């Protein structure tokens, strides 16, 4: 407007013909009305950028699988520094993996017999404390990721010391194959198992200045499991002596187990809030249909109940049409109207490179639909583990996140 006024002031000094003066007067009158209307708008509506810089989740998961970012203090510090320089604002360091904690834990020492994962790079350190301290210096939110949930390696000390805690298939077998790895699952319906998991979570919330804590599908249970003696007896007790259906996908059997997990999730939420009210409870599941049917994790219900305050849906798809379809399900849109909902994007795996072009396209599709932001799985594949040059990948991320922005915090007044 200042430029327009200056232009017309200069224009009025020119020697113009009367007809042009009349036209000029009409134009200035119209502009005066436009200016009046603009000045009546709220200040922040007068200069609306293509994307509001107010807040956007820009997260990345830090894991100890196919990655050494957590195993050396200086490496961790430099990695957090680089993320901050590229305008990321959230990190999810894993804290429960391979049957061990990645921080010194009194709860784990008592139950497992070891207070810390035995990996050499974690010894005589408190990795989580380092992430919190260094991350906060770099204005990064730190939300520990409870990665393995109820899952553990079959040969872990946890499984060996507490075999009665394990659940099983209908044929009595316990081993669940995950790639080449043999896994077992703790029974999420047992009070002693629930106490152990909840004690670990509360220990983290109580002892560290974290911004939140995150769970995923592993906080549920593969739906083929649940045929151990304890669960069968519990089901029979609540069904007049009737045993669970032989079909693990039986709708009532799925719902009964999912409801038990939901009840536990509610207790965990309450325990977290009783320990630290400002600790965000985040969940990073697969899309609802998969999470519920295959992992008994009914995050749609959790969100409706108000026991999820931040949702990051893992949409690891190469097909762009499939990727987009996952963003537009009714339960996703319903959650968007209630809490910050972001999308987890795959940046690669050890043996699977994802192009920067695909990443950029998926980020744009997420932004087009007004999600709260994006989180990338996982740190090493951002630029260290890729077929493209690290400097080219980092330059591309700089273009995706050209300026800093705030984490969309529901507890700090975030609105949909």
UniProtKB/TrEMBL annotation:
GO terms for molecular function: hydrolase activity. InterPro entries: Divisome_Glycosyl_Hydrolase, GH, GHL10. Transmembrane segments: none annotated. The keyword Membrane does not apply. It holds the Pfam family GHL10. SUPFAM superfamilies: (Trans)glycosidases. Residues 56-359 form the Glycosyl hydrolase-like domain. The keyword 4Fe-4S does not apply. Keywords: Hydrolase, Signal. This is Glycoside hydrolase family 10 protein.
